[in-house]
Amino acid sequence: MKGNHRLDDILEECLERLGKGGTVEQCLQGYPEQAVELRPLLLTAQAVKRAAAVPPRREFKAKARCELYRALEPAAEKKTSRPFLIWQHGWVVACAIVLTVLLAGTGTVFAAGNSMPDEPLYPVKLATEQIQIRLTPSNLKKAELYASLAEKRVE
Amino acid sequence: MQNEENLVRRAQCGEGEAFTQLYETYFDRIYRYVTVKVGDRVEAEDLTQEVFIKALRSLGSFRWKGVSFSAWLFRLAHNHLVDYWRKKGKRIMVSLEDAPPIADNSNPQLAAEQNLEIEQVVLAAEGLTPAQKEVISLRFAADLPIAEVARIMGKSEGAIKALQHSAIVSLRKKLAGR
Questions:
Q1: Closest residue of A to B19, CA-based?
Q2: Contact in structure between B122 and B94 (CB atoms under 8 Å)
Q3: Where would I find the H helices in chain A?
Q4: A47–B21: do the CB atoms touch at under 8 Å?
Q5: Rounded Cα distance, A133 and A127, in Å
Q6: Among B36, B56, B169, beta carbon nearest to A71
Q7: pLDDT (tens digit per residue) in B4-47
Q8: pTM score of the predicted model
Q9: Interface test with chain B among A39, A50, A54, by most B beta carbons within 10 Å
Q10: Which one-letter DSSP state was computed for residue A34?
Q11: pLDDT by residue (tens digit) across B96-123?
Q12: Where does residue A81 fall: left (phi above 0), alpha (psi -120 to 50 degrees), or beta otherwise?
């Protein structure tokens, strides 16, 4: 039982190493006594992991993203359901752009582009992105914009 | 993690872009997890989509108290699959005709080490206990570390390591046709 417990740990340690780019042989060198038992398990684990790495189809991913934006929209639509509010909303956006440009200045907006959540310019960055999103007319373009903003964040 | 906590908070306040980032981070992993569990890629696509819509709707109920967002999301995916199977009344979507043969009779030992198809893994995993299968799905398909799998399954890391070991041994036997 104790031996099995130890092998559980060794197996996990080797799987971690494989996940970080190590090879089966490198793992086995560290545990010569367990090598015979360990090798087939590591090879099976590797094969299973490779097989399980199925990427979603591109078309499905794009469609799924659009569905998500549709699901995200109801709250925004509620806000613009009355004509007066649509008009008002347009003015808010226009004012926000003018104010952003006049008060903050193009340089600040540009500098805010790379700011992080704990930095003073981060709210400017969020506001600029929101304006970009609001000004994008179609759902598809919005989807693309969301995706590109998300990618920027990950970078 | 701090960044993810911040993202979750913003998403809970209705910031669509924050939810989109969480979605982009977890989409592929949830899809692979679901695919390994249901064994059918088309069915997995619909289910993955449903998991995220459900996550979006119930995000307000998520509290960052000892549970990470990823643990919450994978538990939600697990529960969604349980509901799905309950309604559907079956557990496996791969038919023996669709799946490539598990072992090459001429060299059964090597079969488990060569390039496998996902359908072969799904079929082999049918012989596992539900807990072993969950560990394999979370560890190898969703690519989560042991600690995270332990949190999701509500077990100790030692218990997860033991399940992982026994699951790989069973898969090896099954894939090698023994």
A1: A72
A2: yes
A3: 2-19, 24-30, 35-52, 58-79, 83-99, 105-112, 122-135, 139-154
A4: no
A5: 10
A6: B56
A7: 889 999 999 988 889 999 999 999 999 999 999 998 888 999 99
A8: 0.69
A9: A54
A10: G
A11: 344 444 444 445 455 555 567 888 889 8
A12: alpha
- Cross-chain residue pair B168–A41, CB shorter than 8 Å: yes
CA distance B89 to chain A (A): 24
Could you give the C-alpha distances from B26 to A77, B31, B40, in angstroms and in order?
27, 8, 19
Number of neighbouring beta carbons within 10 Å of residue B28: 17
**Chain center to CA of A151:** 7
Residue of A nearest to B163 (CA): A8
Q: How many CA atoms lie within 13 A of B162 on its CB side?
A: 10
Q: What is the 3-state secondary structure (H, E, C) of chain B?
A: CHHHHHHHHHHHCCCHHHHHHHHHHHHHHHHHHHHHHHCCHHHHHHHHHHHHHHHHHHHHHCCCCCCCHHHHHHHHHHHHHHHHHHHHCCCCCCCCCCCCCCCCCCCHHHHCCCCCCHHHHHHHHCCCCHHHHHHHHHHHHCCCCHHHHHHHHCCCHHHHHHHHHHHHHHHHHHHCCC
Is A69 in Cβ contact with B49 (below 8 Å)?
A: no
Residues B82-117, buried b or exposed e (16+ Cβ, 10 A)?
A: eebeeeeeeeebbeeeebeebbeeeeeeebbbeebe
ipTM metric:
0.81
Distance from CA of B155 to the nearest CA of A (A): 15
Type of residue at A1: M
